[in-house]
Specification:
The chain is α/β, with parallel strands linked by helices. The chain has a single domain, classed as Aldolase class I (TIM Barrel, Alpha-Beta Barrel), CATH 3.20.20. Helix content is 39%, strand content 16%. The protein is built from 8 helices and 8 strands. The protein has an 8-stranded parallel sheet with strand order 1-2-3-4-5-6-7-8. Helix 2 links the parallel strand 2 and strand 3. Helix 2 crosses helix 3. The longest helix has 16 residues. The protein is globular, with a radius of gyration of 16 Å. The relative contact order is 0.13.
Length: 201
């Protein structure tokens, strides 16, 4: 899963569109549009613009937190922060959307699973400045415990690199999620290929 930078409201260069254009010629991925600084109208415009580009490679668009934007843009699903409104309420109101949620503890992971989400993002597994607010890194052993505790796919997040991906999969993770490695649209396809080389086929 690729997570957008969150800085689209500050970037006149249109990084998300450039990333989506690069992904139109890549292997399929999940792309989480996580742009909390954008007003709703701008977020919908951006989601509607990039979805056809992602569709070209069968990549899937996930919208962070905004189920209304996900529904209006035709996105694949919604990704919820750990402290979002109850996921089961989202599922009842928007039954056509795939729903995932972030979790930073075993308790939160279990609560999310019980609420009916389709997948979890757990971390930070490794140290990363972007996730310092969630405390020290959880580590691979904690990732493994989470994966064994739930019955839904888990994406590992936090300090993820191609070289670290395989260790996450060995602990039971279904996949990995990251932002920083995918920032440069010019190297995006190559980076995805590199990540794939470290993951089971």
């Amino acid at each position: 899963m690729i997570v957008s930078s969150g800085r689209e409201h500050l970037d006149a260069g249109g990084l998300v569109v450039k990333q989506a254009a690069a992904l139109s010629e890549s292997e399929p991925v999940l792309f989480q549009l996580r742009e909390k600084g954008l007003e709703a109208a701008h977020l919908l415009e951006l989601a509607t613009r990039i979805k056809p580009l992602l569709d070209t490679s069968a990549s899937r668009l996930m919208i962070n937190e905004r189920a209304d934007i996900a529904l209006l843009s035709g996105a694949y699903g919604i990704h919820l922060p750990e402290n979002a409104c109850p996921a089961d309420s989202i599922r009842r109101t928007f039954p056509g959307l795939v729903a995932g949620q972030s979790a930073h503890s075993r308790e939160a992971a279990l609560d999310s699973m019980r609420s009916g989400v389709d997948y979890l993002i757990y971390g930070p597994v490794f140290a990363t400045p972007l996730n310092e607010r969630f405390g020290p890194p959880k580590g691979l052993e904690a990732l493994g415990r989470i994966c064994r505790s739930v019955r839904i796919p888990v994406f590992a997040v936090g300090g993820i690199t191609p070289e670290r991906s395989f260790a996450c999969i060995e602990q039971g993770a279904w996949g990995v999620a990251a932002m920083a490695p995918f920032i440069d649209p010019g190297t995006l396809r190559k980076t995805i290929t590199t990540f794939r080389s470290y993951l089971p086929s």
